[in-house]
Amino acid sequence: MIFINGFDISNNKIPNTNAYPYNVFEHKDCGHLNFDSITILYGNNASGKSTLLNTIANKLKLPGAESIRGDLLYFNQFIDECDFTFGDNELGQSFQVLPSHSRYIKSEDIMYEVKKIQQDAILKQGHLYQKALDGMTLNEREQYGNSWDCEKRLDEIRFALEKYSNGEATLQVLEDSIYSDSLYLLDEPEMSLSPQNQVLLAEKINEWARYLSCQFIIATHSPFLLCTLDAKIYNLDTKDFQVCHWSSLENVKFFYNFFKQNESEFI
């Protein structure tokens, strides 16, 4: 399902060239982005991929969207100058609102959840807070918190943490955050994951998009996600954010050339 099919990035120029986030896109001619069920914002460090993802999250008013420290005037002005268009449902009718479980999830959010699980004293508090984000009322949370179902779930989380490494626990936390028919913006979800688990994550995202009708917009430069995800890829290292095939991207070529130069080590 495609809930948001397009996003227009502000191309306005202002006198204060150091104002964030105008300065990030000052020398870009990016314009309009068309989204698929999975869309990747690729770029090296300082390319603006996380800034763009957060801009989209703020424009869509998604839970998890971050404001900035400092002068909010230019930040809010930039957000106002951006625009987006809804996608169509199965009946060809345009969506009017985003699904309630849609979220902006950053790598640090996932690691924070893992750390909360590791601290048993606040495990229950964090679990109930997640239930609040999912729409459970205060009264429902109080009843659930005293129930056998809650204690059983806490035991499952404790067991998962004991059984899995940080990377595997990260996969579990992310999987627990995904609901069907929802839009997710993911900022470098591969952080702390081994290459093998990065591929596993990408395969899961492909499945969530296909079988759960989720839409994903992902900021990453991981070659393992880039080559595994069934995605449209925008290259933010180009001036006009060209759509590129994964094998043509600089980061992927670097990996290829590095191992090619050391090919004799694998014989």
UniProtKB/TrEMBL annotation:
Gene3D superfamilies: P-loop containing nucleotide triphosphate hydrolases
SMART domains the record matches: AAA (SM00382)
Pfam families for this protein: AAA_15
Domain (AAA+ ATPase): residue spans on this chain: 35-239
Domain of life of the native organism: Bacteria
SUPFAM superfamilies attached to this UniProt entry: P-loop containing nucleoside triphosphate hydrolases
Entry protein name: AAA family ATPase
